Structure formats: structure tokens, C-alpha cells
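Protocol step 6 of 9: fold each sequence in the batch and record its C-alpha cells directly after the sequence line. For illustration, a two-sequence batch is reproduced in full.

Sequence one:
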Amino acid sequence: MATTSLPAEPVTPHSETDHQPHGPLLPLTIGAIGVVFGDIGTSPLYAFREALAQAASDGLVREEIIGVMSLMLWALILIVTVKYVLFLMRADNEGEGGVLALLALASGKTAIGGTMLVLGAIGAALFYGDAIITPALSVLSAVEGMRSLHGIGPFFTEPRILMISMVILAALFLVQSRGTASVAKLFGPICIVWFLALAALGAIHIADGPGILAAFLPWHGVMFVADHGVLGLFVLGAVFLTVTGAEALTADMGHFGIKPIRIGWFFLVFPALTINYLGQGAFAIHALEAAQASGKAFTNQDWFFLMVPPAVRLPMVLLATMATIIASQAVITGAFSLTQQAIQLGLLPRLKIRQTSAGHSGQIYIGAVNWLLLAGVFILAMGFRNSSAMAAAYGIAVTGTMVVTCCLAYLVLRRRWGWSVPAAAAMIIPFLAIDTLFFGANILRVIEGGWVPLLVAGAILTVILTWNRGRRFIAALENDGAIPMADMARSLAARPPARVEGVAVFLTARNDLTPHALLHNIKHNHVLHRHNYIATVKTLRRPTIDPSERLEIVRIDDNFCRLLLRYGFMETPSVREDLIAAGDRIPGASKASFFIGRNNYAMSADVGMPLWQDLLFLALYRNAADPTDYYGIPHNRVIELGAQYAI
């Protein structure tokens, strides 16, 4: 019933103070540190280890450690700082960011279709692949730190670490239905402690190999890639683990605003990550020089936890575990929010969405998504068994999403901001070249596990495209030969049927055409209510709608009115409550009967889509959430009428 067409929107970038969350800057900044930076903040657990492991596959020299570190630092500078923090945060949709917000912004007042639909679908699909990998990888990497504990490390074998990790992950997903608002206030302080610990840990080890500071000179990274051929690309793929989580910086803008995220990044997160990575690099240089001096072979190790003094290693493992749980929570919440946006934009079928907090509109729970993510996380954890094996699968989903983000950002520059082709290309091509290079480097690791997010993304993409194709087909089928509502109103005025007291609301996708439920009601029941409203729910390409814009009423004649209910793509419709809130504009709304068209569809080899798509579409359609629940209508006020069609 919901549609995705919308009125014209402004075409110029707005001030960064527009549409920002209101409230004291300090609490918003603390909250952003706990939610926005959880994923990227846990990358030090495994990013340098995996990048150096690739570089050390054919031996290692001091200059190679500096080269790897240079690539990591400049990835943070160019991708996170320049692309996301300074550029993409300006391309927001009334304060909201993320791949689907960019899709809505780029599409403007046109229908989502063609290239934009495919781009948005690919970006969303890859995010789900990332959402499955992040909890498994981050929690496993933290729990693996138990192996470095003095005296009891040998007890934590791979099977035991895997079991502990799965218990933590199971508990995390099980509590989602109860909401996380009560504990979310602890996320910020815990992550602040985590980032301060990262900085302190790195700072005390930079003196081990002060030559690592040369990594700030970018040519060390450039020469490393140029001199190492294919191996350099494999290292580049692992280096990208440094910036995983960058998408969260834009995706969570609507919750915290641009300024708190930028303050958190520049004054805490970026310095802490930089210092910690430099400390790991210096520690590795010291270990390499010690191995060369003693004539022993250099072995790649878990640099992060080995840097921690033995006396505080257990508290650090526990702190790292809490940080990875917070990072996983942020990704799960992001998956819920992305799903809600996709449903409102018509990319996915309706799913049951439940608010878990009366005071936080972003606190939602989607059971189907939660359990599918848990199943995927368990399968990944049991399949890969350790974080090093899983790291190969991580980069493809993130780099793919970043490439899509660049393409959508180009469309925003051209269609919304009115930039010329040369100007838009000059802005986007450097970012796209970097993202494409990283994506190509990660594609080389498909056999090592990179096929997993591609498989997940492919399945989600198939669902999105099939759902959209099916919706368009049945909309055309149902509207074929439909009677204009104005003509029906004149016909009923000329030959009125029997009248009954009360209010009838007919929900339909197009309020300019006669709803099928109205036709069936007159045909079979031969009655017409005293007050009749033809209602359409429309999802706009804005995240939220001002209550004053929610409801529009247009009278057709003495018997009928058209209703238009507008919602943002971040909002959950509540049709009955909004009609009651209209007061005297819709008298008797509290006792209204709601008529909903509930058609049945059967597969056909002769019309519509291929049979395999028919089968998938019908499965999605039949398992979609009840529109009565989705639109916030009590079951005892609903009458369903419909027909059967072949598709």
C-alpha cells in the first residue's frame, strides 16, 4: 500500500546545523563515541596482525613494516577522515546518512528504479554481509586474547575460545528483544576508556622502534605496493581492515549529529587509533631486530595483546571483549535501522517492527533480522573457527559498500546539488579510485573466505530485486482497468446504495483510483457507510515528517474524501492514531472500520515473472507482516476483501 513517490525537495546542500539532534554537545559526543566508533575502534585487535601476516609470507624487513604502517595510516586519513568525516557527512538527507539515505537523496522526486535501485540494493545487501561478519570476527579476536594470559593461556584452546565466543554472541542476540536503551548509556564511557587504553598502550611502545614514525610519509606505502606486485595487493586487502566501520560515521548521523561525530573522531578516536597502530608497528620492529640479532626466525604474533604488560593483560582482555560487544551491538542496531528504511522505501517486504524504548525512536527490534543474523554469525564462527581465517571474508563487504556509496554520492552531486559533470567527477573519482583499488585487492581473497559476504549479499540482492519486480507487476495488474475514484463517486451519487451509519476507511496504494475493497463491499454487501475515506500511506524520501504535514484531506463529494498520510522512511506508520489525532477533521475516527484489499496470487508460467521468481515473491508476500499490524490498526476494526490473480 505504501508508495515511494514524493514531492520536490531542496536541491542545495543545507547548513550543517540544520536537522541536527538537539541537546548538550558533550552527552551527544559521548554517545557517538560509544555507538558510531565501536566497529572501527576494535580494528586494532586484528588489522595490523593480518596485514603484517600477508607481508611476512615471503620474509620481512624493517622497511616493509614501515610500508604496511604507512598504508594503514593513510587509509585512516584518506578514507575515514577526508571521504567520510569531511565530505560525505555533508551529503545527508535532513540529518540522516547511510547508503539508503543517499539513495533517497539521489533519487529526488523520481521513482526509485534502474541504476539507483540496483546501487541501493547492492549497498544494502553488502551491509548485511558486514553485519554477519562483524560480531563473529570482533568477539572472536577479543576472546583469543585469553591465549596471551600468563600461566593460563594454554588452557584456552581454539575449541574453548570458540565456545566462549558463541556463548557471548548468543547472549547478545537473545537480549535484543528486550531493548538496549537501559545499557546503551554505558557504551560511551566504556568506549572512552577503551580508546584511552589504546592510546596509552601504543604510546609506551613507540620508543621500541621510533623509526615507525616515518610511516607518516606516504611514499613508504606507495613504494611498498609498487615493489611487491600481487603480494602488495594481498597486503592492501588486509590493510583495509583498518577502516572497517567507517560507514557507521554517516549511518548514525541522525542519532547524534555531525558535530559530535567529528569532535569524537578528531579529538579522541583518530589520535588513539593512530598512536596504537604506531605502537604495534614499533613493537614489531623491535621484535624483528631482536630476532635478527639472535639468529632466530621472525614470527608474526598477536601484537596487540603482547604489547599489554602481563599485570594488566586480563583486564585488557575483558575491556576488549566489552568493546567488541558494543561494536557488535552497533552493527545489529544498524541492521535493524537499515531494514526499517528498506521496508519504508519499498525495497523489502513488511516485517514486524517493535519499539523497545518509549523515549528513543531509533530503538527498534525486528525478530526476523535478529535470528537470521544470529544463524549467520554461528555458521561463520563454526566454519572459520578463528579470527585470522575470518578476516579474509571481511573486507569485500565493506569495500563493496564504499564503492556503492561513492556512486550514489556522485548522483547526489549531480542531481541534488546541481554540480557539473567535470566538477562532480573531480570530487568523486579520487575516492572511487581508492575504494576500487581496495575492492580489487580484497577480491583476490575470495577463495580464502571472501565468497561468504558475496554469497550473503547475492541472496539479499535477489530478494530485493525480486520483491521490487513483483510489486511493480501486481500494481500494474491490479490497476489495469481500475475505475477513477471521481467517476465512482459520481456513479454512487446518482444511484446511491443502502447507507449505514459509521466511518469507513479504505486503504489503497492510489487514492485517485477506486479501491478494490470498496468495489467488493458494494458488490457483495450492497451498502455504503455514512462517511467514507480513501486513504493512502506514502513514504517520503525524508527520514521524518513534521506532524503538521502528516495528514492531508481532500473532499471528493458529500460521500467521499481522499486521505494522504505521509511518513518518513525512518518512521513506523500508525494510521489509526494519526486519524484520531486529526480530531474534528475526521469525526468518529476512533470507531472507524478499516477496509483492506487482501488479494491472493497464484504462479503462472504464461504471465509475469519466471516461475522461480514467482515462487520467491509469493514466499515473501505470504510471510510479510500483516498490514494491519504494520499500519497500526486494531484487528477488530479491520475487514479484508480481495480477489485472486495469476502472476
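Sequence two, same batch, same settings:
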Amino acid sequence: MEGCCPTQELILAELETLAPGAPFLALGQTVFWDEPVKALVALKSQTAGYSRRFVAGVHDTDYFAKFHQKGQTKGFKAMPHNDTTTKGLWSAAGEFSALFGSETIVTRDALQAAGAKLGKIQAERPGYLDEITEAWGWRGIVSLSSEQNITAEKPLSPLFPELYDTFDWAIQTSLDLIAGPHRKESDQVAGALRSLVCDISDDRHSLTLASYFQRLLPEMYRITCGSDVDVDTTTTTELLKLNPTSASLPRFDLLRLFLDPQTRSIACKAYNEAISGTEIYGLDRFGVGALPFDLYVPGVGRGTLRLGSRGGLVMTPSPVGFSYKKAPTTPEELATILEKRFGPNCVLVGKAVTLIGMLAREFVFVFHEGASSYVRHSRTMHQKLGIAGHKLELHPILRVKLEPWDALNQCCAWFKLPPPFKRPFGAEEISACSLSARWREVQSVQKQVLVKLAGLRRPLDLIQYLDEAVGGQWKCLASQYVDLHNGMVDLNVKVAAVKLLKTKVVEKTKTAGKERIQAERASGEHWRAKIFEKQPTDAETLERQRLSSSVESAISSIQSLREEWRSLQAQQDEIVRSDEAQKGRLLRKNVAFEAELTRVRLLRDAIVASDGFERAGHRPAAWWFPLVCPDGSWFRETAKNAQFRLEHLG
């Protein structure tokens, strides 16, 4: 979306031509994140005079996140996401972001690329990197048990206390950032949000997480935009239920290509080629007869669907099978078989790449810009199917790009900036208008900080930069470090002078050693030639004495040189081990380490205030809008300036 973009009205008019009557579909795994912001699409479409339905759905066929924590095998826990102890964390149905927060991890790779000495920091401060790499303002709820449940199966009651507490954490963390004359109204909105979350869960013992979210959806849409929004609600377990009644719906046309013996190999090839080179498993990884669809069997679980010539398997945690005399070649035949074996409520879920093509036959997906990385692979698969002569008519995706930080220019709120934002913005407290005007410049400057810090390899260079960029104590520390550095230079000069003398002594010792060998060789040769078992003359006896004296002199010289070397070593040790030298080294080491700690803090702030802040704006939690601007001005301005575009799948 660069340059001059078509208006919202033009995009909606084009959509009316391309997909007349096809309902909008907004699918999300949670109601507490960005999904309800899509209310702006429903409102704009209705204002423009279109009667297109807007369907808000809970994507309840994905597994609820789980995380292994030593010593805990049951319950739920909200956890931060970092690049150390929770590196492998994943959460979707239970993720929450406080105002300005996002799941932007400050990775160790990014820190090392910017010059941070992580090995030294980890050795000196175990656990420090947990905090430094943590995504600011984000928590994700995970199950600590080993059970595998999709969201549709997750009972609300045992999960609700952690769900509410985490939402309360996100609300309170956000409230702590809001200042200014309308803080009282923000408190009232927070109270309404807390009450809403509790009131709708009154009969939580009979609800699943998915049915609870479905109840919340219209209310969250309403509270986000400040008025009722005409939306229908659904879940993927409802949308994708496969039985003889639903099997002929267009959403199962893609399945039809994978069942028909005339097209199955073509469809499988298109799928495998579309995901080639990615981390997505090819069909062969799932076993013989695998299709790119999972089957959810109520009470049993979800697993890859495999079809053979005489029967099929559902690769649930404990696989279940079914038999048939003739392999199904249509969705209708498969639905009849499945209903007979498992009942009428089986759900056929396309794997990531196929799900989009299933529902795009009947709906216009509403995606935020950048959401769903699988779209490009799905497009590739459908293009390959089209080339092979099996094109499916798919509705385009409506992409929505938000710029909520720009839209704060219409909001009269004030913010108390959280720690990672204070230094980049150069303020403790800032108006919404000022934040709106400055955030892009701050982002640019912080990216330059990352580049600058990456070039500072010597401690002295880093400390001098901190003096210039941070100031405060670093002016004193920089001066102290320079003095220590110069003192160590003087010390090194003295040590170098002694080392030079030691080197000369070593060379003399080597020479003396060679002279000793020569003297001993000459003495030995004379002994064998003139003395041993012979009658030596007086001259020969005198020569023997002279040669022996030469050997003793060489030995004495070597001993003197060794004594001289030991004396010089003692001088060197005295210099190096002096109280002054050791104190200087320790102080210099501590200042250098303090500089490294400050470097990673600067890096964390720079990443959170640039990449993290931008990502938070692209997918903001919907409840931020009424909390920050209870009069609705922030949401209205965001909706007004949102950019629409159509993304085709064929």
C-alpha cells in the first residue's frame, strides 16, 4: 500500500463487482486482540449502502496452546515470550497485549548483530537475558497439561480465572499509561470491559472457550466502535461441519478435487509444490493416503485425514479408523461414510494452505495487512490448479491497513510512557498529538541507533558513545574509564619494558646454552683424544683444565642469566599485581561491563520502540480504542484513514 491508494469507496465498489453478495468473514482465535477492529469494514460497507453480511467467526479448530514447565502438569498460566526460557512459546486463543505492546521478541541474534557480548552478560548475570529479550506488554495463556484440545473442546470454567486475571493485567497496565483530563472516563470504560468479560461468563460451567468468545464477539465489536454493529457470529466448527447436508456447499469444492480420482494426483502435486521450500510438511510426511485436511471428531480429537482403498484413518492422538467398500470420490460420499461412523458433527478443516481456498469460495476474508503468511502459498496452489485446468472461483481477500498512531492526532489523551519508550521519545509523559507527530521519526532514529551500536566493538568506543548519547553518569564514567585506560597504558608500558629485558635475557641464555654445548663437546673430544687411557703431557693437562673451566664458566653464565630472568619476572609480577594495577583492572572491567548492560538496554528500547511499536499499530487490540479515547475519536479517525486493497487468490 504505497503511493496513491484507491479510496475505501472504490475498493468496496470493485468488490461489489467481483464478489456480489459474498459475505465478509473475519476469523480470529481470540476476541481480545485485533479482530473487533474490523468493525470498521462492516460500518463502512453499510454506510456505503451495501447489504453485504459481515460474519465474525471464532477460529476454534486450532489446538489450545500448551507449554511444558518443570514440576507443573495441570492448570493454565499466562507467560511472557522471550528468546530464552520461553523461546518456543506459542499462544493464540489466549493472548493479550497492553497498550503499545506486541509480541515482538528482542532476539539474541539482533542483540549480537548490534555488538552485544551476550556470553559475558549471561555468565555474569544469569537470567538477565530473559528480561532483555522479553516482548514488552504481551502475555499468552498456555495449558500446562499434556492433553491436546482444540479451542472448541476447551471448557471455560477451569481456564476463566487465568483468562480474567490476564485481561485485567492488560487493562491495568494500559490504564497506568493513560494520563490527562479524561482518565476518569478511561477508568469507567475499563470497568465496563471487566464487567462485560465477567457477565458473559456467568454460566461458565456450561461454556467452552469458543462459545464464550462467540458470545463476546458482538459486544466487543460494539464497545470498540461505540455503537451496535450488524454482524453475524459463527465458529469454524460450524462453518466446516461436513455431513450429507453440507457436503455440496462450495466450501468443499477444494476437497472435491482431492477426492476425485481424475484430479487427486494433480491436486496433491499442486499442494506439495506450493509448500516446497517451506517448513510446512508435504503430504508424504503424514503417511500414505494423506490429504491436506484435518478431521475433527467430537470427543476424539483432530488429526490428518488419510484415505486408502478399503478404509481411512484420522490421525488423532489415538488414531481412529473407518472402513468402506468403495473409496469416497466426492465430499457427499465421504460425508455419508463419516456420519455413519462418527455422527453428523465431524468438521473438515483445511490445513493452513487449504483452509483459505475452502472458505474463499463463499466468503470475502477480511485480513489485516501482513496477517496470515500462508496466503501466498495458497495462491500458488490455486494458480497451479488453474494451469492444470481446475480453477476454482475464489473471492478476493480484503486487506485492511491501519495506522492508529497517526490517528492519535484527533485524540486529547496523554500518556505516561512505559520504560522502553521513555529514552527513545525523550520524555516521561507525552500527549497523543505529540506521539502521533513524532513516532515515525523516533522509529527512524532508533533504527540508526541499532546501526551505530553495531559498529562499537571496543569498550572505550562504546563508553564514549554512551557519554554523548546518554549523558548523566556516563560523563563521569567515561572520564574515569579514560583515566583508567591511560593508567593501564602506562602500566603496560612498564610491563612491556620489563618484558623486553626478559626477552633479551632469554636470547642471551640461548646463546650461553649453545656455548656450553660447544665447550662440553670440545672438552669431551679432548678427553677422548688426549687423556683417556693415555699419558697426557703437561700441556695437554693444562688444556684439559682450560676446557673444563670453559664449561664451568658457561654453566655459571646460564645460572646468572636465569637468576636475572627471575628477578625481572618478579619486577613484572610486582607491577602487575600491585594494588593500584588490580584496582584499575577491576574498575575498568566493571565500567566496561556496565557499558555492555547499558548497550543491551538501549538495543531493547530501540527494537521495542521501532519494530515493536509499528507492529502494535498494525494489529492493535480493539479495546485500546475506547480505553484511550472514550469519546470514540481515535477509532473514528483510524477507521476513516484505514486503507483497503483487494488481494486475489487465483
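Proceed to step 7 once all outputs are recorded. Observation for sequence two: The radius of gyration is 37 Å.
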